[in-house]
Write a structure and sequence with these properties.
The structure is a homodimer of 216-residue chains.
Chain A: H1 10-19, H2 27-39, H3 42-58, E1 60-61, E2 68-69, E3 83-90, H4 93-102, E4 107-111, H5 129-145, E5 154-157, H6 163-176, E6 182-185, H7 201-209
Parallel strand pairs in A: 3-4, 3-5, 5-6
Antiparallel strand pairs in A: 1-2
C-alpha cells in the first residue's frame, strides 16, 4: 500500500529524507528510526552523528593496499609476520574483513574500491588497478635486486564469480601477467556442506571440471 | 554464523557501534551502511548528520496535543476547520500520521508519548495523561461558559488492542470520565477484506459480540 506522507514537521521530513537515502532503508523505516532518535537523550544523538561524520572526515586509506586505516599504513601491511609477496586483490573493505575472519590467509591485500561495471559507469581507471601494477612492479624489482625471480610474487584475484568480477579479473590479469608473477583465483565449487541436488548447474559443472585430488 | 569483528579502523568501529545502536539494524547492516557513507561525497554525509542532529536539537512539540511540530502549536491544532472538541488519544506521533493518512478524521489529537508498561518501566506519570485531563477539564469549563454541557466533548481512545493498550485506556478512562464527557474507543473487528477462516479467535469473538447493523 502506498504510504502517503504528511509530515507534521519539516525537520522530521528532512531527517526522514536523509535516513531513507541510505541503501535498503525505505521511508517507513526511516520514519521509525527518526522517531526513535527523537526519544533518545541529546548526547546519544550527537554521539551518533559525530561518529558518522568523523568516519567520513577522518578516515585514511593505507598507502600500500588502499584498505581503510587509522594510520597511513594499515595494521595488515605493517604486520611483519605477514607474507608481503602474496597479494590478495579484493573489491572492497568488506571482502578484506571477510577473508581475515576465515583466519586462513597470511598474505596482504589490495583493495580495488569497486569492480569494472560499464552499466554503473565504473571503468578500470576508477579502480586502484594502476596502483596494483606499480606495486607488483616494485615487488618484482625488489626481488630481482636480491637475485630472486618474479615467481616469488603471487597475486590472488579474489573477486566475485559474476560477469563483472570475471571481466575485472581478466583485465587485471592482462595488466600484471607481463611481470612473470604467479596469478591465481579463488577456488570455485560446491560450498562446504552443500547438497549436490540443490547446486546450480554452473557451479556443479565447474566443480567437476576443477575436481581435486582426494586426500583421504 | 557468528560474525567476528576485526575492524581495520577505530573510526569505522565507532561508526558501526553508533549505527547498530539503532533499532532493527544489526552490526552487519551497520557495517554495510558505514561503508556506503564512506563512498559518498563529504557534503552528503554532513547533510545526513546535520539533518539528524537538527531534528533532535530543534524539534518542538505542540503545547496543546504534544505532537511533533515546527511551531509551538501544530498544524492540526491551529487548523480552524478541525473539531477541537473531539480528541483522539494516541500512543505516538506515528499513530497521528497513520490516522491522518486515512483522511477519515477531522478532530484533533493528544499524543501520550508511550503506553503504560510496567515491564518497560513506563508508568502513567511518564505519559501526558495529566495534560490530557487538564485539557479536557479546560474544554468542559469553556463549554459550560457557553451554556453547553460536557457531552459535547468526545475523547477517542485509539490505543493498541494488547494488554498494555487496554490498561492505558482503562487508566485514562478513570482519569477523565468524571468530567461527564463522551469516551469512545476504536472499533475492533475483522479487517477490511479479512478472511473469517484466518481470523484469530479473540478478534472474531469481538466481531460477533460487537456486530453492527447491516446497512445494505
Amino acid at each position: 500500500m502506498a504510504y502517503k506522507e504528511n509530515y507534521p514537521s519539516a525537520l522530521l521530513e528532512d531527517a526522514v529524507d536523509a535516513i531513507s537515502s541510505l541503501p535498503g532503508i525505505g521511508r517507513r523505516s526511516a520514519l521509525r528510526l527518526a522517531l526513535h532518535l527523537l526519544k533518545q537523550p541529546v548526547e546519544n544523538v550527537h554521539h551518533f552523528t559525530s561518529a558518522v561524520a568523523r568516519l567520513r572526515d577522518e578516515v585514511k586509506y593505507c598507502r600500500t593496499c588502499m584498505m581503510i586505516s587509522d594510520e597511513d599504513t594499515c595494521t595488515i601491511c605493517s604486520d611483519r609476520s605477514r607474507d608481503s609477496r602474496t597479494i590478495c586483490v579484493v573489491e572492497s573493505v568488506r571482502d578484506v574483513m571477510s577473508i581475515e575472519n576465515t583466519g586462513q590467509y597470511h598474505g596482504v591485500y589490495h583493495v580495488l574500491g569497486g569492480i569494472i561495471s560499464p552499466i554503473n559507469g565504473v571503468g578500470p581507471s576508477d579502480l586502484t588497478i594502476r596502483e596494483l601494477a606499480a606495486r607488483v612492479s616494485g615487488l618484482v624489482s625488489e626481488l630481482s635486486g636480491c637475485g630472486e625471480d618474479a615467481s616469488g610474487v603471487e597475486v590472488i584475484l579474489a573477486l566475485s564469480g559474476d560477469v563483472e568480477g570475471e571481466t575485472t579479473s581478466f583485465y587485471i590479469y592482462r595488466q600484471i601477467s607481463r611481470f612473470g608473477i604467479r596469478v591465481s583465483s579463488l577456488a570455485r565449487g560446491l560450498g562446504f556442506g552443500d547438497d549436490l541436488e540443490y547446486a546450480d548447474e554452473l557451479t556443479l559443472g565447474r566443480s567437476i571440471v576443477n575436481r581435486q585430488e582426494f586426500k583421504g
